[in-house]
Structures are given as structure tokens and as C-alpha cells.
Fold this sequence. Notes:
Layout: H1 2-23, H2 30-33, H3 39-46, H4 64-67, E1 86-90, E2 94-99, E3 105-114, E4 122-124, E5 134-141, E6 161-163, E7 170-179, E8 184-193, E9 198-207, E10 213-224, E11 242-246, E12 251-253, H5 259-262, E13 265-268, E14 272-277, E15 280-286, E16 292-299, E17 302-308, E18 312-314, E19 319-330, H6 333-339, H7 353-370, H8 373-387, H9 389-404, H10 406-415, H11 420-434, H12 442-461, H13 485-500, H14 507-524, H15 529-562
Parallel strand pairs: 1-6
Antiparallel strand pairs: 1-2, 2-3, 3-4, 5-10, 7-8, 8-9, 9-19, 10-17, 10-18, 11-12, 11-14, 13-16, 14-15, 15-19, 16-17
Helix pairs in contact: 7-8, 7-12, 8-15, 9-15, 10-11, 12-15, 13-14, 13-15
Amino acid sequence: MFLWLGLVLALWLNYETWQRDYALPVPPTATTATAAPSAKEVTGLAASVPQAAATTTGEASVAPQAAATSVTAPEASASPTSVTSTINVATDVLNVEISLRGGDLVLADLTQYPLVKGEDTRVRLLNTNPSNFYLLQTGLTGAAGEARPTHLADFEAAQTEYRLSDGADELRVPLVWRDAVSGVTVTKTYVFKRGQYRVDLRYDVENAGANAWRAASYAQILRNDPPVETSMFSVESYAFQGPAFYDGVKYEKLDREDAEDRALARDIQGGWIAGMQHHFVTAIVPAGSAAYRYTLKTDGNQYLLSTTGPSVTVAPGSGATFEETLFVGPKLQAQLEKTGPRLDLVADYGVLTLLAKPLFWLLEQAYKLTTNWGWSIVLITLLLKLVFYPLSESSGKSMAKMRVLGPRMKNLQETYKDDREKLGRAMMDLYKREKINPLAGCLPILIQMPVFFAFYWVLLESVEMRQAPFAFWIQDLSSRDPFFVLPVIMAGAMFVQYKLNPTPPDPIQAKVFMILPFIMSATFAFFPAGLVLYWVTNTLLSIAQQWNINRRIEAEAKKTRAA
């Protein structure tokens, strides 16, 4: 059974690696797309202003041919590197820059997250670097030939720096756009909150002109996203990176090489879009009161994931408000849940989400008690062992009885060594008389395998585990043990566990089982240290339980023989 489980694990790891390496053929342009793009190369996506979806009034909606194309902005502004002047905004968790060209977020540093533990460089999500630019573009769009505050328009600001002051819980950054022809003024306000990676975006429109003014809000993620180099030694290569969205019912990751995904054009209410990567995410959550049009455009490694709302008509002498929510930061599930409907799904546990979510919740509760994620893993492993105790107790007794019957089974092997059919019948009769199920010992392992894989994804994908220390040399539970001490302990523990179980009747099988702990520990050596900690803890608890069961069964056997 151990051999089969080892084979399943090896096949699963090879399948995951194959999918990353070969399932999606690299397009011919991929080798050149990583070079710094010129303004001309990115114009097609960066200058794209989406069309409005539908009108919320009795007026006719914006014509599809007109709404998506022309805006009054210089063509040169299409390049992500053409940011003219910016405003710096600093909170307790974010350091961002907002460009006055478009009023977009063009840089975001996460001040609480070092890129490498112990170093000063912070994780940077948004940036204008030509080789890997990453922008959140927002604005209001309208018909062709009409000036609108798109991400290509110019804004004004009263200050060049904004700081979240001590004692304040909120920081508002207003940007103003004016159109003398229409008499319309739009105030685009970013709202930052203490301790939050959520950023609220609000447009206040005042129409002081003589004519009605119509616009639709939009937001989009523009990114040059070269593929991550795959490696079994890099946990980042196991996580999904790219565009994703939620349609109000289902969360979907978009494959940029798939023709159907590239043709995304859906009207969705109560959803969101996101730019995904390991541990971090940028997301846009439109207002849930209306349907928005979701679209995806790609160009080599670049993608533009957009969401566009319905047209709203602002009558002369009146005003209107447009609102959206942005998220730029780590995949902290507590904050994600409050930002958008099921936005916590970006902490992607895959097919084992139903099992991984409760496990993560239990780990969170344990962390509140221990304030250490490593000890939380140990505590939850103990809890799971208690939950499965009745099952493991029953299987442990069967294993212990088989161990006691070892000499009798050896006699049967010697008696029927030339007739394997009679040997099999004799052993089955012995099992029946002694009420032993030889397969019972496999059941706990089969039940633990889904828990093991769920733990794997929790430790791999949960940013809470990133760079989280345990004790001594283990200073990052999400990466491998730097000195391979835990894998060595794991090998020793599994070897002791093997000795406590009955010896397989086949000598070759017995030798294979003897070396299996060392093979498993070599495989686990490059797994996250938190996962190895879980397996070591579980094995040690299993050893203690099986030792106790063996002691009781052997004592009962001695009493029976004495009687």
C-alpha cells in the first residue's frame, strides 16, 4: 500500500510539472516579448478604452462602434513608461504613486512584506517597468469625440504627497478633471484606510453645462506577465499567475493561450476581476447593483482584463456618482472576504478548497492561541489525530494482531512454500479465526491523503505562512528546510513506524518498505517546511499510538497463552 501511495504521489507531482512545462505551448513571440517594449508595442492594449455596457436610464446606450475607440489624448501617452508627474501616497501598509495622466495607480509597494526575508526591499506589485509593467487603469468613458476623464486624460491635484497621519483611520486623495466645453467637473477620489489593502474609488460628477452628459465607469488590469520559470525547487512555479474573474457563481482562471478565454466578453453582475500571482493579487470589484461587461485582450505576454459598467446620463445642473473597489496586496483572506463577494477564492486551493478552507480556519484559530504558525500546525495535527483516533485505533489493533501472529504466519510460509495457492488459503483462514482485516491498516492512510494534499495547498498558497518563522533554524514555513533537518527526522520517524508494524511476508517487499522512509524523506526535502512539520508530527503521534496498542495486544496474547 505504501508503494501504491508513493506511486500516486510521484505521478501527481510529475503531472503538475508536465502541465506547467508542456501542456501550454509557448507562442512564437514569447521569446521576444520579455524584452523592454516600446511605446508602439504596447499602444494597442494600453490605449484601449472599453465601451459602455448598457444604459441605466431611458436614453439609448452608447453605440458600440463609437464607445470603445476614440478619446482626446495624445497618442504618446499610451506607453506605460510615459508617466509625466505622480502623487505619492503613503499609509501604514502601502506606498503608492498615482499618475496625473489618467489618475491611475502606477506603483504599489507593500511596506509590510519584504521581497526577501531580512532585507529592506519590499514586494512591488504595480510598476511602470517596461519589462514587466503592471497597472490599474480606471476612468469614465463615453462616445467618440467627447472628452471624458479616461485613463489617458489629465487630472489636477492640490498636493504632491499624502500621508496617513497618526491617529487617522482614513486618507482621501482627490483628483480633479474639468471640461470647459461641456461644463462638467469630475472629482476622482481614492480612499485608503489604515491597515487595509482595499482602496475605494469614487467619481463625483457635477454637470454645470446646458446639455446632458453621459458616461460609464470602467477599470482594467494591464500587465506584461512573462511566464514563471518552472522548477520543483520553486514554490512560486506551482501557483497560478495570470488573469482571473468571478461571475457571481463561479471563479475562473483564464488561459491566455485558449481561444475561448481570449474571446471573453460577458455581462456579469456581482463579480470581480483579478490579476493573480503567488501570495499577492490585484483585484477590481465593480458596484454590484448593475451588470458590467467583462473582457480580455492579449498580446504575447501582455494582457488587459477589463470591466465596464452601464452608461449613466447626468442631466444639466445635476450630479452623479460612480463607485468601484480596488484591492492591491497580499491574499489575506479576512480582508478579501470583506472587499468583494467570494474574493477570498483568489487564495487558490484548487479542487481541495472545501477541505482546505476549514483547515485554514482551524489554523487561524490555533494561531490566535499560539501566535506561531508552526505550533499551530502541530496543534491542528494533534486535533486531527484525535478526530481520527477511533478509526486509527481499530486499524492499529489489526496491525498489532498481525504482528503477534508473525511467527505463525512464518510457519505457514515454510509449510506451504511450494504451493502459493494453499498458502493464501491458509493465511486467510488464520485471519478469519483471529478476526483480523489485513487491509484495515491502509484505511487511515487513505483518509489522511486528502488532508495531506489540502495541507500542502494551504501552506503553499496562504500568504499568512509566507516567511512565517517556527523555531530555531525554521524561519520560513512556506519554503523548504534550509538544513534538511526535518526531512531527516521524518526518515527516522517513518523507519521507527515501519518497525512497529508487522513485517511483510515477502522478503523483497520487506526490503522495499525498509528503504521507503528514506525515499519519502528525499522527496519531502524540497516541500514547504510547514508540510514536513505536519507529516513529522503526525508520524510521531502515530508511533506513540501504535506502540501503546502493540503493548496492550502483546500483553493480552501473553495472558491467553498462559491460560
